[in-house]
Amino acid sequence: MIRTHDAGSLRAEHAGHEVTLAGWVARRRDHGGVAFVDLRDSSGVVQVVVRDEEVAHPLRSEFCLRVVGEVSARPAGNANPALPTGDVEVVARPGRDGVEVLSESAALPFPVEEHHATPVGEEVRLAHRYLDLRRPEMARAIRLRAQVTRTIRERMGAHDFLDVETPYLTRSTPEGARDFLVPVRLQPGHWYALPQSPQLFKQLLMVAGVERYYQIARCFRDEDFRADRQPEFTQLDVELSFADTEDVVALTEDVLVAVWREVLGHEVGTPIPRMTYAEAMRRFGTDRPDLRFGCELVDVTAYFADTPFRVFRGPGSSPEGQGAPSADDWYVGGVVMPGGASQPRKQLDGWQEWASSRGAKGLAYVLVHDDGTLGGPIAKNLSEAEREGLAAETGARPGDCVFFGAGRRAEARALLAATRLEVGERCGLVDHTRWAFVWVVEAPMFEPVQLADGGTGWTAVHHPFTAPTAEYAADFEQRPGEALSQAYDIVLNGSEIGGGSIRIHRSEMQQRVFDVIGLSRAEADSQFGFLLDAFEYGPPPHGGIALGLDRLCALLAGVDSIRDVIAFPKTASGGDQLTGAPSPITPAQRRDAGVDAPPER
Ligand code: ASP
Questions:
Q1: Dihedral sign computed on CA atoms, order 478, 479, 480, 486
Q2: CB count, 10 Å around CB of 459?
């Protein structure tokens, strides 16, 4: 037997027992003739006392050891309450019997312990991920993630869901990103695509009568690099037959409640509140509202309809030339920053820089002085009546600052949504102990897209298999800009952690959606003809959802980056520091893989 006990399991009741441990030297301190070695294994750390100087001398950080010794209560006053094993220590037997070096460690590229004392660049950590993962906080994140997936499997099993695997080598799937492609050696010029999600397969499983499917599935999307995006990521993917939104919502809430209870001991209140997409956009300027604080957007479009201030006055009925927003699309909104009137000039200039770094022209503001009069550069451009009524209109109090966004509705709201979050953080309004879940439902079915020929067309907001709400089922093609879908997103503290929809299960309606997004029958057939064919054979009504497991775990672990909850993540630029992937291939590999095969005609 290599060991009898886990290091982190020893307690006062083990005093007097002889134990054999195995693990790594986390820390070593010498005290004239006695060395204290913190021995770490996956269960935790215990202090080992090595009285034999000759044995202690060669021990270095991260050596792998086997220790035989007796557990003893620490001398009075020496207990370490910060450590679960802090009441005891293990006194190693004298000589090599007591401490055996199982393997030595080379000099470390960065300290594994006391990481906080010496911040280490992420690239180095990722290049030596096996050392990085020895650090207790990383080990904790990996454990947390396993606890999450265990709980998910337990709940899904309890609801009779079947875990079904779907292929990784497949055809293009319709989540709207670019595919990663895999050449096929035996059929030069032919390529597999890695799935962007198991969407089509889970719908096929519904046609197959599986009724309740789930999978903890890897998804691959070749998108532009962004700080916290991974080219491969994991979803809890779910699909149910004979289900409506209520069924999917109830199941998802059950899983979320179980995960939060199991991992954090926190009770998530249910039902989780719901908000329509339109309400989320109106109140928060985003479909991912952070409900941990107020400072909601105030629509002042009508208030400023006739303002002398040109920047706030809409285009009216005569748009000012090409590219100007239409009267319909014009929006002026505000966000109140409590206490913001006392910001020094420099800080107010800082806001302008912040806004331009986000691509906005600037961030107009007025300051509400203690006597109720308005200050700031634009105040004098407003009419007297506007100045007088503005505080009441926006809910600002003396001492506050009001920021404004004006322009196309989507852009102005996006700027104000970001301003609101920034105000929330800068003013300390965000309660970081809260878990604010919200369902955002009834997203639009379509959004406009610029077509290659310069015209505008429509694209599906979720994906083209999403069903319209009953209200739009008969005539969504006549008003694609208004049509709402039976889609739902689950949002937590301003992050979207999942989304899904009730699907279209009739080919006639599916075809109408394809018509709106300009997908010809031939194109639809070539891309997912197999799904449309399957829908010829009695498809059941169905719907589903996918939860982003990486983000979910990052939120639970309280870390900013999803990389911290992925054992072997890639950097923000898609590289794997550890293996050096992606890497060039040899001419022979190229030939073999058929990468250069002439395109088929
Ligand atoms: N397949 C969708 C996605 O990955 C989720 C769903 O509709 O179930 O976003």
A1: negative
A2: 16
Q: What secondary structure letter does DSSP report for 512?
A: H
Provide the pLDDT for residue 600: 65
Q: What is the pLDDT of residues 316-329, one digit of tens each?
A: 655 555 567 888 89
Which residue is associated with the tokens 């907001």? 461
Average pLDDT, the chain: 94
Three-state secondary-structure class, residue 47? strand
- Cβ–ligand 1 contact at 203 (below 6 Å): no
The confidence score (pLDDT) of residue 315 equals 84
The backbone torsions φ and ψ at residue 69, rounded to the nearest 5 degrees and listed phi first, read -170, -175
- 236 forms bridges with which residues in the sheet? 216, 547
All residue ranges of the chain with pLDDT < 70 are: 115-117, 174, 316-323, 599-601
Q: Is the distance from the beta carbon of residue 183 to the nearest atom of ligand 1 less than 6 Å?
A: no
Look up residue 449 and give its amino acid: V
| 500 ligand 1 Cβ < 6 A | yes
Please choose, from the candidates 524, 526, 527, the residue with its C-alpha nearest in 3D space to the C-alpha of residue 510. 524
On whether the CB atoms of residues 174 and 597 are closer than 8 A, the answer is no
Do the Cβ atoms of 524 and 473 come closer than 8 Å?
no
Q: How far is the CA of 528 from the centre of ligand 1 (A)?
A: 16
Please give the distance, rounded to the nearest whole angstrom, from the Cα atom of residue 547 to the centre of ligand 1. Answer: 8
- 3 state DSSP class of 299: strand
Ramachandran class of 359: left when φ > 0, alpha when ψ lies in -120 to 50, beta otherwise: left
**Contacts of range 265-271, beta carbons closer than 8 Å, 24 or more positions apart:** 266/435, 268/435, 268/437
Is the CB of 175 within 6 Å of ligand 1? yes
- Whether 140 and 557 have beta carbons less than 8 Å apart is answered as yes
Cα–Cα distance for residue pair 243/540, rounded to 1 Å: 9
Q: Give the per-residue SS3 of 189-245.
A: CCEEECCCCCHHHHHHHHHCCCCEEEEEEEEECECCCCCCCCCEEEEEEEEEECCCH
Pocket of ligand 1, candidates 199, 203, 218, 221: which has the most ligand atoms within 8 Å of its Cβ, to mutate? 199
Residue 550 Cα to ligand 1 midpoint, Å, equals: 15
Residues 6+ apart with CB under 8 A from 183: 190, 191, 593, 594, 595
The residues with which 123 forms a beta bridge, in sequence order, are none
Q: Is the CB of 394 under 6 A from ligand 1?
A: no
The answer to whether 150 touches 143, Cβ cutoff 8 Å, is no
- Tell me, using a 6 A CB cutoff, whether residue 501 lines ligand 1: yes
SS (H, E, C) 373-413: CEECCCHHHCCHHHHHHHHHHHCCCCCCEEEEEEEEHHHHH
Q: What are the phi and psi torsion angles at 336 (to 5°)? A: -90, 130
**Ligand 1 touching residue 496 (CB < 6 A):** no
Residues with Cβ < 8 Å from 382, sequence gap 6 or more?
A: 307, 308, 309, 366, 374, 390
User: For residue 323, what pLDDT is reported?
Assistant: 66
Dump pLDDT digits (tens) for 64-91.
999 999 999 999 999 999 999 999 999 9
Tokens 């057939």 sit at which residue? Answer: 525
Please tell me the chain's helix, strand, coil percentages from 3-state DSSP, rounded to the nearest 5. 30, 25, 45
Write the Ramachandran bin of 44: left for phi over 0, alpha for psi from -120 to 50, otherwise beta: left
